[in-house]
Structure formats: C-alpha cells, structure tokens
Amino acid sequence: xxxxxxxxxxRQRANxxxxxxxxxxxxxxxxxxxxxxxxxxxxxxxxxxxxxxxTNCDEQTxxxxxxxxxxxxxxxxxxxxxxxxxxxxxxxxxxxxDNAFCVSRKGEEILRIPVIAMLILLLFFWQFxxxxxxxxxxxxxxxxxxxxxxxxxxxxxxxxxxxxxxxxKDEYEKL
Length: 175
Known about the structure:
It is built from six helices and three strands. By secondary structure, the protein is α+β, with helices and mostly antiparallel strands.
C-alpha cells in the first residue's frame, strides 16, 4: 500500500486531518496499527469503549443454551408432524366414509358398502375376499367406487380389471 493510501485510510478511520495522519504514520514507521495507537495516546482518537472480551456465556445475553434450543426445535418439529398426521388421518376417514365400494352384475348394483367397511373387511378377511373378487370378475361382476370425491382414476383401474377378465374368459372359450 502506498503512503498516500495509508494516510487516506488512517484519516478516514481516525477522523483526523491529512497532516495529523501523516505525522502519526511517520512517527510509527508507516504502520497503520501503531499510528492508531499513537493518535490514541495523543488524545486525538477515542479508544474503543469496550476493552475486555470474554468467552463466558453467562455474561452475554445473545447466547442461548444449545441443548434447550435443539430440544425446543425437536419438540416443534414433532408437534408439526403430529398435526400433519392428524390432518391426513381426518382426510382418510372422510374419504373412506363419504365414498362407497360398489359391486354390480350386468349393470345392476348388487352391493354398496362404505370404503372404510371394505377396508376393515379386507384387513381381517383378505385371504378369502381377494380370491373371491378375482373369481367374481369372471362371472361378469364389476367393481366401482361412488361418492363425493373424484374417483375416476380408481374406476378406470376397476374397468381395466374387468376388461382383462373378459379377455381371459374369451381366450379360454376359444380353446
């Protein structure tokens, strides 16, 4: 750094004139830190108001206990997760209550039960219901969902299962 740049920098930091900055730098062999100390000793610059520093966190209010903060954040995340799960559970219950699983044969509806009842039955009797449902497809039974929600995607899947059963039945009859 050139002498002029040092004079300018010291003048800005110490808020002194060019002449005082140059004098201080010459007296301190052009070292900026020594020049600041020189100006402080002459009373031209105020020393920093705080001269002691500590690493003791009890005296400093901006520090927080890390364990407490982490525990607080974990509890909040857990609370939010529980709220989300509760919300999803309420949506699940509403959708399974407000919609029905329907079984029809040759266009005539023969069974309609709430989806939640169907899920409970499947939970306990899946070994009997799943094979019975597959076999019923071959006897022209069709499955669908009806209710308040948009169930078009599930109904399309049920139609494809019925069409597949018809294709298999047709292939078997050709043999």
